[in-house]
Amino acid sequence: MADLKILRSNPKRFVKETKNWISAASGSLLYIIPLLLIFATMKAFATGNLLGIFVNAGGYAAFLLAAQLLRRGLKAEIVYREKRVASVPKWPLKGMASIIVAITTFSVAWLGAHNSFMVSAAFGAGAFLGMILCYGLDPSKQKTVAGNHGYTIEEISSTIEAAESVILSIENANNRIRNLEFNTRIDRICETARTILDELEANPSAIRRTRKFLIVYLESTNKVTTGYANTHLQAETPELEQNFRSLLDNIENVFKEQKEKLLQEDLFDLDVQIEVLAKQLKHEGIV
Predict the structure, then answer these.
(1) What is the Cα–Cα distance from 62 to 59, expressed in whole angstroms?
(2) Smallest Cα–Cα separation from 211: which of 223, 224, 222, 200?
(3) Domain range summary for the chain, segments of one domain joined by +
(4) Of 83, 142, 150, 243, which has fewest CB within 10 angstroms of its CB?
(5) Measured between alpha carbons, how far is residue 200 from residues 77, 78, 145, 159, 259 in Å?
(6) In 26-152, which residue ranges form alpha helices assigned H by DSSP?
(7) pLDDT class of 278 with cuts at 50, 70, 90
(8) Confidence (pTM)
(9) How far apart are CA 219 and CA 281, in angstroms?
């Protein structure tokens, strides 16, 4: 039993695989390039050039703002690309970053480096083109699943995101449980839950038939896991551990049995299984 209570130092989590090549760190170049403006600002300060100080320091701040917008835009694109159903990002962050970089480059070249207007404009246009070529445009089309499923993109996304939020809560609670056996089993439960969410994204017409499962089952699992995580370190007893193991038996088995039935018409059996779980949770004092 002692080896079952090993605390995981680096627990492996199930993460959706994405074929997107974009990395959130891809915007790091915008943090490095404007470092030259720090030296330009220091030089302007040493010579008493107030315009140079303002232009170079302001340009550095503008580049940092563009870098932040770009990084957020890349992260938003990653989320967009790895989902089957998704709305376009609320703000065109990459486009905004590109415009800021172009205007800043033009301003620094014209007012800071004292190039001609046309040469400075060429620098600005080149910076804008470089941003587009390196990082691309913001997503502009909504992603949905073909078919007459009767749901809007917002309804599908909100359902999936709400369920994903509960799964993340379960995983956070699992990280606080010092029991390798329970950790592994809860990981499997979360992986199965995400498999169901992937199938729902591919077949949104099943949302109506799975809504009760997502709400009742996931929420109950979250309450069970969070409750055990909050109490087992302070008052761990063989009885508490066995009760939680019994609940995990039920939860894991039903997940396995229902993963295929959820997307079929076998609703009666599903409702019976959920009612059985609800009664057990109530008996254990969880709900």
Answers:
(1) 5
(2) 200
(3) 24-135, 149-283
(4) 150
(5) 21, 20, 10, 10, 11
(6) 29-32, 35-47, 50-81, 93-107, 117-135
(7) low
(8) 0.57
(9) 11
